[in-house]
Design goal:
By secondary structure, this protein is of the alpha/beta class. The chain has one domain: TIM Barrel (Alpha-Beta Barrel), CATH 3.20.20. It has an eight-stranded parallel barrel, surrounded by five helices. A three-stranded antiparallel beta sheet has the order 9-10-12, with no helix packed on it. A hairpin with a 2-residue loop joins strand 9 and strand 10. Helix 7 runs parallel beside helix 8. The longest helix is centred in the C-terminal third of the chain and has 34 residues.
Length: 324
């Protein structure tokens, strides 16, 4: 740790913007045991900065099912709790973006996360994504909403970084997930180095690589029990930005048992086929449902303690560096 890094950590670590992430409660939300309103209560109770919620979280009670009046009431509750809202959708298509923008504006949310899910040869996929980004810029730039594209298992970090840099869209940046690069046949620190200039949001989780041919899938694990260099990444992300922190949101996305297959491979060539993928989903247990749902809740809360412990370790290391 350098003196500059140590100084940034001491200045920033106590106010690190931690966000509840709905996916940490994915199974409970699929069963409607936890609903969007409940996420606000949990985030408030845990003294978090805000909540990141997918438009479909909560099934029949999800944000996308709410009337304008209900969305406004939800946003007002978040405001009263002093919570920032960030809306997520699992597509870059115009209809999905328009829906997410409507929800964001009605709830007073500050940003929208999306990721593309196109099938085809890489270069054709990238052209489709560029067109989607141009649509977002042309149609929704005036809203003032921030838009982030997540590195989500099929596109490599340098491809995503190039999409952002070529867009010439100030309110458009990257969301860095701690494990999704495994599926694109990359490692976390390598992916970070390629994306670091444009990362503004983060999803924190841990995962193990699953060898598949000449690539890797990933299976999410408890934080601290996977292959992700959690502490190193957290240090590097906190230190991004010179005058002020570059990363504005650290999402607590514990997602134990989530699995995603390999998408990119050592021998794929320069224009590989990208297969279609559905939106992210963790399999529902076939037995012991109540115990699994309770474990999911505990895992989500425990991840917060894990992250705060690492943050304290980094703070003490920073103090030691500056006291030399």
């Amino acid at each position: 740790m350098t003196n500059i890094e140590a100084q940034k950590i001491i200045e920033r670590i106590d106010s690190m913007p931690l966000y509840l992430h709905a996916y940490a409660f994915h199974l409970n939300m699929r069963k409607e045991r936890i609903l969007p309103d409940d996420l606000l209560e949990i985030a408030k109770k845990l003294y978090l900065t805000g909540a990141k919620i997918h438009v479909e979280d909560g099934e029949t009670q999800a944000l996308k099912t709410m009337s304008d009046e209900q969305l406004e009431a939800f946003g007002q509750k978040a405001k009263e709790y002093n919570l920032d809202l960030k809306i997520e959708t699992s597509s870059s298509a115009a209809s999905a973006i328009d829906e997410a923008v409507h929800i964001a504006l009605k709830t007073g949310a500050s940003s929208i996360r999306f990721y593309p899910r196109y099938e085809g040869n890489l270069q054709d996929v990238l052209q489709k994504v560029k067109a989607d980004i141009q649509y977002i810029k042309d149609t929704h730039e005036h809203t003032g909403l921030k838009f982030v594209i997540e590195q989500h298992e099929d596109l490599k970090s340098h491809e995503l970084n190039q999409l952002v840099e070529e867009a010439d869209f100030p309110n458009f940046s990257l969301l860095f997930d701690f494990g999704n690069m495994f599926n694109a046949n990359e490692l976390p620190l390598d992916a970070f180095d390629k994306m670091k200039d444009n990362i503004t949001q983060v999803h924190m989780k841990d995962a193990v690589r699953v060898p598949e041919g000449k690539g890797f899938g990933h299976k999410a694990s408890l934080s601290g029990e996977g292959e992700v260099p959690f502490k190193t990444l957290l240090k590097k992300l906190i230190c991004l930005g010179d005058e002020k922190p570059q990363v504005v949101s650290f999402g607590l996305e514990e997602e134990v048992d989530y699995y995603a297959p390999a998408f990119r491979f050592d021998d794929e060539g320069d224009n590989p086929w990208i297969p279609y993928r559905g939106a992210s989903e963790t399999p529902m247990p076939t037995e012991g449902l109540d115990a699994r749902l309770e474990k999911e809740m505990n895992d989500a809360i425990n991840q917060l303690a894990f992250v705060r412990n690492i943050a304290e370790e980094l703070k003490q290391e920073a103090i030691a560096v500056l006291n030399k």
